[in-house]
TrEMBL record:
Cofactor: [4Fe-4S] cluster
Family matches, as InterPro entries: BchE-like (IPR051198), Cobalamin-bd (IPR006158), Elp3/MiaA/NifB-like_rSAM (IPR006638), Methyltransferase_Class_B (IPR034466), rSAM (IPR007197), rSAM_horseshoe (IPR023404), rSAM_sf (IPR058240)
Keyword Transferase: yes
Protein name as it appears in the record: B12-binding domain-containing radical SAM protein
GO cellular component terms attached to this protein's record: cytosol
Superkingdom of source: Bacteria
C-alpha cells in the first residue's frame, strides 16, 4: 500500500506570530511511531507541513492525518479533499480523540487515544477489507513496540531531531490539561521498560536529546534506573518536569549527572487558590523559590510556563507574574491564556456554566480568550498576555534576570540562551531557510553544557 502520514500546519504557523524556528524544532515523532507498524512492502512517507509544502493532488491508498485543536479545520479540508477522490482517510491525535464525531465527518476512520494498539489493528482490518469507523486505544503495552521510523523524518530540517518519549500521558489530573482527555477512556499513564528505552537511545546520534514526555519524572523508579545508565553516555538533555519532583528525593541530582540541563516547568500561577481550583497537585503547597534555587545550584536552566486567566486572576496578575519570573532568574518563559480544550474537565465546567464564548477551534491557541472571565475582559486579557511577553523579553529584563543566579556561569548561560532564543529572529530565519541546523545545534549543546 502507498501510505501517506500528514501533520497539517497549526493555524498559528500561518499568522504574524509565526516564528519559523518554533515550528522547526521537533520532527513528528508520533507519526514515525505509527509508521513503524507498516509492512516492508508498503511505500510510506511522512509530510510535516511546518517544514515543507503539502500537496494533496496525489493518490495514495491511505492517508493518516494527525490533528491538534488549531490544525483541525485545516486537517478536515485535507481529509475532505482526499476522500472526494476516493482515497481512504484515517484521522487521529488529540482533537480527533476528543471530538470523534466531528472528525468522522472528514475521515473514513477515526483512531481515538494513543495509536500503538489501535493503529496496527486498523491496518490489519483495512488490508482485510473490513475497517471499522472508530478504534479505541484498548490495552496498551509499550515494551514490544518497534522503534519509530526515524529514517522517514527529514532530520536536517529540525533543530532538535533527537526527540524521544518513553512514557505516554501523566498520572496527574490538572483540570485544564488536554493530556487526560486523550486517555479519558482508559489508563492515563504508561511507560516502557528500561531495556526498550536504552535500545532507542542507542539509535540517536550526537549528544543532544529532548525528552518529549508530558511529565518526564512521573515514574521515579524508572527514571532513577535510566539516569544511572545515562551517566556514562555523555549526553545533554532537556524535558518537562513538575515542581514537586524537583523538591522530593535526589532524582534531580541524578538527572543532572546524566546530562539534564534545562527543565520546562509548569508553574502556571502564583496564586494558591488558582492552583487548588485547577487541581494542580504538583504545585500546591510547594515552594517555587526552593525548587528554583535547587535547580540553579545544580546548573539547570528553567523554561517556566505560566497561565493567565485562572479564576482568581486580575489586572495585576500579568506584571506580578513577570516580576516573579525575572526575580527568580527564570531563563525563558512561555505564557498562555487559559484555554478550555474540549474533553478537559475545565471545558465541561465552563460549558455547564455557559461561559464559553467561541467554538472556533483556530482561536484555541492560548493567545486568545475564548471564555468569559469574571475579572477581565477579552481585550484586557489579550493585552495583558502580550505585555507579559514584551516585558519578560526586554533586553533590560533579560539582563536583570540573568543576574539573579548564584554562579556567574549560570548568568552567562542565561543571557546567551534567552537572548539568542528571542532576540535574533532574522538569524533564526536564515538558519531555517539555509538548513544550518547542525552548527546551531552545536552552539545549543555548548550553551547547555
Ligand atoms: S502535571 Fe502537567 S502533564 Fe500532568 S496533568 Fe498536570 S499539566 Fe498535564
Amino acid at each position: 500500500m502507498k501510505i501517506k502520514f500528514i501533520l497539517p500546519a497549526l493555524q498559528e504557523a500561518k499568522t504574524p506570530f509565526w516564528r519559523p524556528i518554533k515550528y522547526s524544532l521537533f520532527p513528528p515523532l508520533g507519526l514515525a511511531t505509527l509508521a513503524a507498524f507498516c509492512s516492508e512492502e508498503d511505500e510510506v512517507i511522512i509530510v510535516d507541513e511546518h517544514i515543507e509544502e503539502l500537496t494533496y493532488d496525489d493518490m495514495p491508498d491511505l492517508v493518516c492525518i494527525q490533528t491538534y485543536i488549531t490544525n483541525a479545520l485545516h486537517a478536515y479540508e485535507i481529509g475532505d479533499s482526499y476522500r472526494k477522490r476516493g482515497v481512504y482517510v484515517a484521522m487521529g491525535g488529540l482533537h480527533a480523540t476528543t471530538l470523534p464525531i466531528e472528525a468522522k465527518a472528514h475521515a473514513d476512520t477515526v483512531l481515538l487515544g494513543i495509536g500503538e494498539t489501535s493503529f496496527p489493528l486498523f491496518l490489519k482490518e483495512l488490508r482485510e477489507g473490513k475497517p471499522r469507523q472508530f478504534y479505541q486505544t484498548g490495552t496498551v503495552c509499550l515494551d514490544n513496540l518497534p522503534l519509530p521510523r526515524r529514517d522517514l523524518l527529514k532530520r536536517s530540517h529540525y533543530l532538535v531531531p533527537n526527540s524521544m518519549v518513553f512514557s505516554r500521558g501523566c498520572p496527574n489530573q490538572c483540570s485544564f490539561c488536554y493530556v487526560n482527555s486523550f486517555f479519558e477512556k482508559g489508563q492515563s499513564f504508561y511507560t516502557c521498560k528500561i531495556d526498550r528505552i536504552l535500545k532507542e537511545l542507542d539509535t540517536l546520534p550526537g549528544k543532544h536529546l529532548y525528552f518529549l514526555d508530558d511529565n518526564l519524572f512521573a515514574d521515579k523508579k524508572l527514571c532513577h534506573e535510566l539516569f544511572r545508565e545515562m551517566k556514562s553516555m555523555n549526553r545533554v538533555f532537556q524535558g518537562a518536569i513538575t515542581v514537586n519532583s524537583v523538591l522530593e528525593g535526589d532524582l534531580i541530582e541524578e538527572a543532572y549527572e546524566a546530562g539534564f540541563r534545562s527543565a520546562f516547568i509548569g508553574f502556571e500561577s502564583m496564586n494558591r487558590e488558582n492552583l487548588i481550583k485547577a487541581r494542580k497537585q504538583t504545585n500546591i503547597n510547594q515552594s517555587y523559590q526552593t525548587a528554583v534555587k535547587r535547580l540553579d545550584e545544580l546548573g539547570i536552566m528553567i523554561n517556566g510556563s505560566f497561565i493567565f486567566g485562572m479564576e482568581e486572576d486580575d489586572k495585576d496578575t500579568f506584571l506580578r507574574t513577570v516580576s516573579w519570573a525575572i526575580e527568580s532568574g527564570i531563563t525563558t518563559a512561555t505564557f498562555h491564556i487559559l484555554t478550555p480544550y474540549p474533553g478537559t474537565s475545565l471545558f465541561h465546567q465552563m460549558k455547564e456554566e455557559n461561559r464559553i464564548q467561541s467554538f472556533d477551534w483556530n482561536a484555541y491557541d492560548t493567545r486568545h480568550l475564548v471564555f468569559q472571565h469574571k475579572n477581565l475582559s477579552k481585550e484586557e486579557m489579550e493585552k495583558g498576555y502580550q505585555t507579559a511577553y514584551r516585558e519578560f523579553y526586554k533586553w533590560s529584563n533579560i539582563g536583570k534576570a540573568s543576574k539573579n543566579h548564584e554562579k556567574v556561569r549560570m548568568s552567562i548561560k542565561h543571557f546567551t540562551y534567552a537572548g539568542a532564543w528571542k532576540k535574533f529572529e532574522p538569524v533564526w530565519n536564515f538558519i531555517v531557510k539555509q538548513k544550518l541546523f547542525p552548527p546551531a545545534r552545536r552552539i545549543l549543546e555548548k550553551t547547555l553544557r
